[in-house]
Structure formats: structure tokens, C-alpha cells
Amino acid sequence: MEPDAQGNFTKLFVMNYSSWVTPGLFGDAFADITPLSHELAETMHDPFVSFDGVHNQTQWWQVSWGLCQDNLEDGDVIEGLANVSYPVTINGFTYHPQNEALLQWFAGESPSRAWQGAYSFPDTTVLTAPAPSLGVNCAGPIN
């Protein structure tokens, strides 16, 4: 973003809108805090995705269930997979935060420099290889 004529930058604020999902409403894996954790992670990693076309642009990526994008929407990568969430039990209640794709997946980094060579977290087995290099609108792959 460019400063205005007086040298001031536009102040931007981000907010998150997400919901608690009643357990069982969308199956066993997508429940309670899954959408909250998804949106909070994306708020931190790509807060201005829809602001004036500015976003944390990545190489084009496509996931097995068809989604094709070029941004750092780390929850979108995993949201259509069977193992979307990672169960965590606290005080006798099991919450389901979403697994998230790591920066190393988007960067196509091989091997990953992340903890334990991971491409996803907290379940490091969800994504086991980096995103392939694709052309614009997921045309490709690029060799």
C-alpha cells in the first residue's frame, strides 16, 4: 500500500466471523471449533485477502478435491479432506480444530524445513508432499 499525499498509510483492521458448529451437524470431523480455527488461521496468514485485490499471493495450487487458488488460505487446502480436523480433549470435551497447511506446502519446499518435515499441522500426515508448481488457473504442472 502506498502512503497518501501527507505520508500517512491507511489504517486497516481485520476481523473474523466464524461459528460454533453443533457436533454431528456435518459429520464427525467438522464440528464445534473447526470453522473458528480455520478462519483464525487465515486471519493471521492472509488478513487482507479481499481488500483491494491485495493478498498473500502464492503459486497456483490445486487440491485433490478440486479447489484451485493462488493465495495463502491455509485452511482451504484441507477443508475438503476426510481428516479436516484434529481432535483435542480438554476437561472431558473433545474439540475439533482444523488441520492447516503450512507455508512450506505453498512454497513447494522439498524437503520441508518445518518441524518434522511437515506440510500440515497439527496432524503432519494430512499433507505429505508440497504443492506442485502449476500454471495460471492451475494449468500445468510446470516442470
* First-last Cα distance: 33 Å
Query: Percent of residues in beta strands?
Result: 5-15%
The largest sheet, given as strand count, sense and whether it forms a barrel, is: 2 strands, antiparallel
Low-confidence stretches: none
Give me the Rg, rounded.
17 Å
Q: Determine the fraction of residues in helical runs and give it as a percent range.
A: 10-25%
Classify the secondary structure makeup into a structural class: alpha+beta
Number of helices: 2
Strand order of the largest sheet: 1-2
Domain module tally:
1
Order of helices and strands: HEEEEEHE
The number of strands is: 6
Inertia-based shape: globular
Structure description:
The protein has 143 residues and is an alpha+beta fold. The chain has one domain (34-136). It is 11% helix and 14% strand. The protein contains 2 helices and 6 strands. The strands form 3 sheets. It has a two-stranded antiparallel ribbon. It has a two-stranded antiparallel ribbon with strand order 3-4. It has a two-stranded antiparallel ribbon with strand order 5-6. Strand 3 and strand 4 form a beta hairpin.
Short overview:
The protein has 143 residues and is α+β, with helices and mostly antiparallel strands.
